[in-house]
Specification:
81% helix, 4 helices, mainly alpha
């Protein structure tokens, strides 16, 4: 078991890095919700990013867009590689 000095050091670390403030904001937001979410953990995950200035939904959309772009570019590379191969055979 950790001694009290280690606990205090860890608590200071959490305070210094803003973790306690961010968690407090999210938990207060959950407490103030008039319609409590069915999945409190999902609420915390979603809103923790928001309390840090991160738009989780925008990041998810950007990720999906980038995956689609990678797929399209991969297909383009395959198509161009086939055309180049065909041109080299002539």
């Amino acid at each position: 078991m950790q001694n009290s000095a280690e606990k205090e050091e860890f608590k200071g670390y959490l305070e210094k890095t803003g973790v306690i403030d961010a968690l407090t904001k999210v938990l207060v937001g959950l407490y103030e919700e008039s319609d409590k979410p069915s999945d409190a953990l999902e609420f915390i995950k979603k809103h923790l990013g928001n309390s840090l200035g991160i738009d989780v939904d925008a990041l998810k959309q950007e990720n999906a867009d980038l995956k689609a772009e990678v797929l399209a570019l991969t297909q383009r590379v395959d198509d161009l590689s086939k055309k180049l191969e065909a041109a080299n055979k002539q």
